[in-house]
Amino acid sequence: MPGNARLGVLNQFFYRRRELITLALSVATAPVWSLGARAQPRARMPVIGFLDTTDLLRWFDAFQEGLKELGYMPGQTIAIERRVGAPARLPDLAAELVQLQPKVIVASGSRAAVAAKNATTTIPIVLAFATDPVELGLVASLAQPGGNITGQSNQGPGLVGKRMQLLAEIVPGVSRVGVLTEASANQVDFREIQAAAVSLGLALDSFEVANPEDLNAGFRQAAATHSGGVAVLSGPLVFRHRDLVVAAAARHRIPAIYYDEEYATAGGLISYGPSVADLHHSAATFVDKILKGARPADLPVEQPTRFKLVINLNTAKALELTVPPSLLARADEVIE
């Protein structure tokens, strides 16, 4: 091969070799850099577990809004892993969250709180709300929780008794009241309602429910025993099927008082209790403190100080009840 031709081949060889090396380096380094850029923020993003027994988004949205007001942006600066299921599924869902090693687990409701407690003794747990954290064995005391759990109770002193007073006020002359309660639940509330019945001179009938089919049966029994009204106690099964509860009360024409405004919105006669949406909103404050280094054992469990009275006038009219003007004046919301 002539010298000039041999030199051209060599130049072409080295040129192509230099191109291949440059291409290989760019292929090798570019993905590493871009993956690192995407993965680095994710690696720094704290994960919050959220365990719930209801698919009601209003409560969850209130919690996320609370986080945003504190400077956390879900999906951008903080990741939330939400698990929702019936009470029987909560232990498995809690274990699933623990496997993700979140910084905090938020438990919405007593059953969720117990499931989270049984799943971990090290990951901090924040109670969005629980009926009686001490009675449930979640904390040693409200002032000094100890352990890895803190948060909020949705129960205040005399709250259940106040509901009985309101029921007696909206149904003048009532002498017998039924109590709809989930089996093996609400023992603290039930004891308080018994004491309130004694002080008000009311006879008390208890109707336990274990499945949705029992809800209508409970109101049917209340009608059969001539209960002048029914107090519905809190519980995940009852709340998940609140439309059935309200429908059963209407079907048997029994005035009922509920613990949460969601019932009154769904057509229930009257509700009185803390805003559960507000409790979820303020649960974000506990998460913020823990993420900044606070220990759950040092954060006292808080009890509600504000309660919301909601009256559904449409339901009152259907039941042919006249709501006293003094009661309407005290209502935070009247549904017409």
**Class by alpha and beta content:** alpha/beta
Q: Which CATH class of the largest domain?
A: Alpha Beta
Largest sheet: 7 strands, mixed
Count every helix, treating DSSP H or I runs of 4 or more residues as helices.
Answer: 13
Strand proportion: 15-25%
Q: Give the neighbour order of strands across the main sheet.
A: 7-6-8-9-10-11-12
Rough outline: elongated
Mean pLDDT: 87
Helix proportion range: 40-55%
Rg of Cα set: 29 Å
Just name the CATH architecture of the largest domain.
3-Layer(aba) Sandwich
Distance between the ends:
102 Å
Order of helices and strands: HEHEHEHEEHEHEHEHHEHEHEHHE
Number of strands: 12
Structural commentary:
With 336 residues, this protein is an alpha/beta fold. It has two domains: 45-154, Rossmann fold (3-Layer(aba) Sandwich); 159-273 and 307-335, Rossmann fold. Helix content is 48%, strand content 18%. It contains 13 helices and twelve strands. The protein has a seven-stranded mixed beta sheet with strand order 7-6-8-9-10-11-12, with helices on both faces. Strand 3, helix 4 and strand 4 form a beta-alpha-beta unit. Helix 2 packs across helix 11 (276-291) and helix 5 (159-170) packs across helix 6 (187-200). The longest helix has 42 residues, at 3-44. The termini are far apart.
